[in-house]
Design a protein that fits this description.
alpha+beta, Nucleotidyltransferase, domain 5, four-stranded mixed beta sheet, 6 helices, 5S rRNA binding
């Protein structure tokens, strides 16, 4: 049998380009829950995930579809910068209500461009009181968070959603 490095079969998630196992191990060693942010073609998903030997446990979760219960407009994008901010804000409020005060950001294989949608979700989590280590230079500015670059009605929707999350 061949035992060389090039003949060994890699893990399936590594072969498919879904998981960077070195980065995952660095995050898991800290023992702190991960604030996972994933963007699909239609919506954002934010989760607070804790490692377990039998599999990861999801402690709290918010996605683009669940933004409707916070007053997010039905016709508005569920993956835009303001939608990501509101999803991160809602996740952090539910996580802090359950007694989770800190996390580390897990963006997976997404590009880490300053001001991106992933960092809009991070800003929502930080504004809601979740302690996540980050640099201030990567967070998007207030105009992008409020959606003034999209439409003035989105800014009102962001404020309405924040108030609805505070009341819930």
């Amino acid at each position: 049998m061949a035992h060389g490095k090039s003949q060994r079969l890699r893990f399936k998630r590594r072969r498919n380009g879904k998981t960077d196992y070195r980065r995952r191990m660095r995050m898991l060693r800290g023992g702190v829950p991960r604030a996972v942010v994933r963007l699909s073609n239609t919506q954002v998903t934010c989760q607070l995930v804790e490692f377990g030997m039998e599999g990861d446990r999801i402690l709290a979760s918010v996605n683009g579809k669940s933004l409707a219960k916070y007053g997010w407009p039905a016709g508005a994008s569920r993956k835009s910068v303001p939608a990501c901010y509101v999803a991160g804000y809602a996740l952090a409020k539910s996580a802090t209500a359950d007694g989770h005060g800190e996390a580390i950001l897990d963006i997976g294989l997404a590009a880490s461009s300053p001001g991106s949608r992933v960092f809009a979700a991070l800003r929502g989590m930080v504004d809601a009181g979740l302690d996540i280590p980050h640099g201030e230079g990567v967070l998007p500015d207030d105009d992008r968070i409020n959606g003034t670059h999209i439409d003035e009605s989105i800014a009102a929707a962001v404020e309405a959603a924040r108030k609805a999350i505070e009341e819930a």
